[in-house]
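INTERNAL AUDIT FORM
Audit reference: QA-55
Scope: verify that the stored structure record matches its stored sequence.
Auditor: D.O.
Record contents follow.
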Amino acid sequence: MSYTQIYYHIVFSTKNRLSVLHIEKRKQLYNYLWGIIKNNKCHLYQMGGAEDHIHILTSLHSTKCLANLIRDMKTSSTAWIKRENLYLKFPGWQSEYAAFTKSYSHKDDVINYIKNQEEHHKKETFIDELKRLLKEEGVDFDEKYLQ
């Protein structure tokens, strides 16, 4: 048996960061994504976001690959959103994503951070948030790709 304890804080946005993920239907989207996470034998700790992006804190099953999980979530949810007409102007997801590993001791902080996304984004834009997270995690990035 393999034993792992790796928490991933995943962030991805709508294509062109369009603000289409209206709050009244977000719970349906989160439930759908949670189903994908469960079907991949992964564990969801928290999911939240704003009108143009989503944050997920999850741990992966030892046999799963992060990139494949994100691909599955994006591909499947895009088809589902369009089939269900959940968000009429939904353009799909950006092809890129950000993912950061977190320690057990920071898990509750990340959960609370994700829970408070609506309030948080009254003060900080998604792009500013993403730049801050990348800097905090020591990730080199080119700002031209964040525009």
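Auditor finding: record pair retrieved intact. Strands lie at 7-13, 43-50, 53-59, 98-102.
Action required: none
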